[in-house]
Specification:
- This protein has two helices and four strands; from the N terminus they run E-E-H-E-E-H.
- By secondary structure, it is α+β, with helices and mostly antiparallel strands.
- It has one domain (3-78).
Length: 79
């Protein structure tokens, strides 16, 4: 199974590694990223009453970017 890396990138272009997981394919990695983004947004909204801005990026095991999720899009889905 391939290893996928998940990174939170904020407005100031800071990149924060969140976690890495072995998953069967890109579809599973996207589902994991959606789940992680929802958890981050809910946590942030409880603390600060605002959704985080930025992206959650997925990289393959060689560190190449393969997908990106906009946190604003996820926030709209859960509000």
């Amino acid at each position: 199974m391939p290893l996928y890396h998940f990174h939170l990138r904020t407005r100031d272009e800071a990149c924060h590694p969140t976690h890495s997981r072995m998953l069967p394919n890109l579809a599973a990695a996207l589902a994991e990223a959606q789940h992680a983004a929802r958890d981050m947004i809910r946590s942030r909204m409880r603390k600060m009453c605002s959704a985080p801005s930025g992206t959650l990026e997925i990289e393959d095991e060689k560190g190449r970017p393969i997908a990106r999720i906009l946190l604003a899009d996820v926030a709209q889905q859960i509000s």
